[in-house]
Amino acid sequence: MPYAVKLHMNVAAELALRHLSGEIALAGLVDDSVLEATRPYITVAVYEDIRREQFIARLTQWAEEKPAQVIQLSQVGAFLKKPATVFLAPAMTDDLYRLHREFHERFRDIAYRPWAYYLPDIWAPHCTLAEDLTPYAAGRALEIVLDLCPHISGTVESVSLLTLDPVQTLATCDLMGR
Q: Left (φ > 0), alpha (ψ -120 to 50) or beta: where does 113 sit?
């Protein structure tokens, strides 16, 4: 069963992201906003298996050691795949790179078979606004986001551990300094 580790932002940033995702849905490009039933997030890692109890205990400790981080969601993009995914991405900072790299180093002995997309030096951090889009719909979704011209500043305030099949939150921990 896959497990995901996700970063969550402050309420104001989440509301701005939900608004953008909702505008794409209102344009009829997707059936529902992808953020309708879930909090906006940036995935840090996905593993096929973990030592669950140890992972949760270590995640709690890790979160207590990490300060909340201000991020700027200043880039819009789409992954080069069909169907397409449209997203906002943070401007990369040394702090965000370090947080990601240190996370993977800290958990490598109790987390197994990581998904390559989320490994250091490959990771493309992003917050999904719409997915399963045709090429036309992806272009239109990008146009909607650019027309609204958001520059969302947010604070990464918490980290959560979830199972992916079925989706279930196992733990959520506030970052220090929240």
A: left
Per-residue buried b or exposed e for 136-162, using 16+ beta carbons within 10 Å of the residue's own CB: ebbebbbebbeeeebebbbbbbbbbbb
For residue 166, the number of C-alpha atoms closer than 13 Å in the C-beta half-sphere is 1
Per-residue confidence (pLDDT) for residue 178, from 0 to 100: 52
What is the reported pLDDT for 110?
98
- Please give the domain boundaries of the chain with CATH numbers for all domains: 3-172 (3.90.1140.10)
Tracing tokens 């069909």 back to the chain, one arrives at: 82
Give the number of C-alpha atoms closer than 13 A to the C-alpha of residue 154, restricted to the C-beta side. 28
- pLDDT tens digit sequence for 48-67: 999 999 999 999 999 999 99
- Whether the full predicted model's pTM is greater than 0.85, yes or no, is yes
